[in-house]
């Protein structure tokens, strides 16, 4: 039988790498997308050796028009059974210290590319009569922590709207809202991990929970019991308090996955 095929953006490290390893173990063929060709090829080789599945490498910068076009062409010209939009982009500075071009690049990766690739994929999936879409948003979407939060909220609402339009079809759509995850992200930023240790989730924990929720057809996946509780409470917190809590804690991220 033909193995299922998944395309993962931001696949070279962190959460994206975790999705790749989990799906390869589940006998998925993969299309791995990121900017770092060396890390992508190392991962593809490791997957092929350990699991015997195919892992193609696509080098693309999703903050650029050309990068998005490269990935969209793959989606439109080959079978993709599962698309995981995971590529990240953060900035160390706040809104006032960032260049407009930097904010636009961040929004392109976190929202614009997600929107365009999602639409290309689900149209193909709907025509074939099956498929799944996972868009990685963030618990930051519930805060006011800069452009990062704004873009992640955009992706969350877009994904929910898309799920509504695809209700009753065989195509599942899931937005994942991870909290803090133990990756090399903060090390690359050159900052300390904020908060107590208990708020940090393992990559495998987030991957396993979100894939399980997606296979069940859940529209929103929030890995971690403490984060699910926080999301429920957040609905009743006044926006003034959300703004106060977000100020000074708005570490914008640059996950070069």
From TrEMBL:
Gene3D superfamilies: NAD(P)-binding Rossmann-like Domain (3.40.50.720). This is SDR family oxidoreductase. SUPFAM superfamilies: NAD(P)-binding Rossmann-fold domains. It comes from the Bacteria. InterPro entries: NAD(P)-bd_dom_sf, Sc_DH/Rdtase_CS, SDR_fam. Keywords: Oxidoreductase. Belongs to the short-chain dehydrogenases/reductases (SDR) family. Pfam families: adh_short.
């Amino acid at each position: 039988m033909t193995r299922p095929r998944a395309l993962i953006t931001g696949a070279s490290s962190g959460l994206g790498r975790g999705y790749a390893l989990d799906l390869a173990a589940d006998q998925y063929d993969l299309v791995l997308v990121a900017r770092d060709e060396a890390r992508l090829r190392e991962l593809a080789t490791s997957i092929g050796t350990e699991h015997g599945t195919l892992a193609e490498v696509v080098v693309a910068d999703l903050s650029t028009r050309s990068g998005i076009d490269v990935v969209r062409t793959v989606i439109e010209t080959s079978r993709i059974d599962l698309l995981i939009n995971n590529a990240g982009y953060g900035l160390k500075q706040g809104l006032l210290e960032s260049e407009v071009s930097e904010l636009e690049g961040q929004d392109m990766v976190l929202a614009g590319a997600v929107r365009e690739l999602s639409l290309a994929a689900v149209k193909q999936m709907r025509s074939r009569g099956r498929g799944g879409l996972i868009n990685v948003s963030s618990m930051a979407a519930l805060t006011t922590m800069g452009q990062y939060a704004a873009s992640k909220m955009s992706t969350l609402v877009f994904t929910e709207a898309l799920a509504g339009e695809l209700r009753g079809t065989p195509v599942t759509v899931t937005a994942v809202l991870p909290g803090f995850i133990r990756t090399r992200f903060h090390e690359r930023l050159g900052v300390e991990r904020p908060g107590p240790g208990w708020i940090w989730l393992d990559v495998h924990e987030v991957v396993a929970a979100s894939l399980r929720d997606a296979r069940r057809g859940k529209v929103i996946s929030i890995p971690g019991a403490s984060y699910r509780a926080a999301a429920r409470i957040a609905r009743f917190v006044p926006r003034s308090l959300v703004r106060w809590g977000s100020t000074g804690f708005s570490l914008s991220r640059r996950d070069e996955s």
